Amino acid sequence: MSDLTGPAPVTALGGAAFEGYVRVAEEPQRAMFTLRGDLSATAMKNAATGLAGVDMPGQGQAALNAERMVAWMSPDELLLTLPWAEHDKACTQLDATLGDPMLNWGDVSQARAHFSLSGPDGAVREVAAKLAPVDFSPAAFPQGSFRRSRMNQVAAAFWCPAPGRIEVICFRSVADYAFRLLSDAARPGSEVGLYA
C-alpha cells in the first residue's frame, strides 16, 4: 500500500470553481470509505458511527457532523467520509473493528470527485434537478437526505447537508465531465424557477 501520510492528494480538477446563479466548486480531498455487510451488525455500526461521531442513518439518509458523514448507500453498504487528516487513523481502526470476513471496507478516497452547489436554496435544488431524476423539492429531499442516482450519463450521489447546499460525488475519472455539467446547469440565464 502506498504511503498516504502527509498533505492531502491533489483533487481531480485542482479546486475548480464556477460562479453561476449558484456556485459550483470542487471540494477539498476527504477520506472516503465504503463499508459493506450486515448494517445491523454491532461491529459495522461501531465502525461507522465511532469514526464519524454520528448516529446510524436510515434508508436514504446521511448522518452529518461537519466534514464527517455516514450515508446509507444500499441495504448492505455505507459511505463514510472524514477529514483527510484522519485517513490513516481510520484505516487502522476499520481494520481492527471489521475483523469479521462478512464485513469489509474499501478506501475510495482517491477514486472519487466531490463537488458542492451553494446559493439560494431553491436555485441549488433546481440545478441538481436539471441533471438527475430525483425530486429535489424541500419536502422530498430535506436536510440530511442522500440519494444515489445518475447525473446525465454518469453515476452520482447527492446529499443535502444544509439549506442552500447540495453536495455531489462521482467517479474521479468523470470529474471534468461532471464539473462541466454542473457549471452548465448553473449558467446565468438558464434559471427556470422550478423551486422559486
Class computed from helices, strands and strand pairing: alpha+beta
> If strands are numbered along the chain, what order do they take across the biggest sheet?
1-2-8-11-10-9
Number of strands: 11
How much of the sequence lies in strands comes to: 25-35%
The major beta sheet can be summarized as: 6 strands, antiparallel
Question: SSE order in H/E notation?
Answer: EEEHEEEHEEHEEEH
> What's the rounded overall pLDDT mean?
94
**Rg over alpha carbons:** 17 Å
N/C terminus separation: 49 Å
Count, helices: 4
Ranges where pLDDT stays below 50 over 5 or more residues in a row are none
Shape: globular
Approximately how much helix is present in the residues? 10-25%
Written overview of the protein:
With 196 residues, this protein is an alpha+beta fold. Helices cover 22% and strands 33% of the residues. It is built from 4 helices and 11 strands; from the N terminus they run E-E-E-H-E-E-E-H-E-E-H-E-E-E-H. It has helices at 42-52, 87-97, 121-131, 175-185, and strands at 17-19, 23-26, 30-36, 62-65, 68-74, 77-83, 104-107, 112-118, 146-151, 154-162, 165-171. The strands form 2 sheets. It has a 6-stranded antiparallel beta sheet, with helices on one face. The protein has a 5-stranded antiparallel beta sheet with strand order 4-5-6-3-7, covered by helices on one side. Strand 5 (68-74) and strand 6 (77-83) form a beta hairpin. Helix 1 runs antiparallel to helix 2 (87-97). The N and C termini lie far apart (49 Å). 37% of the residues are buried. The mean pLDDT is 94.
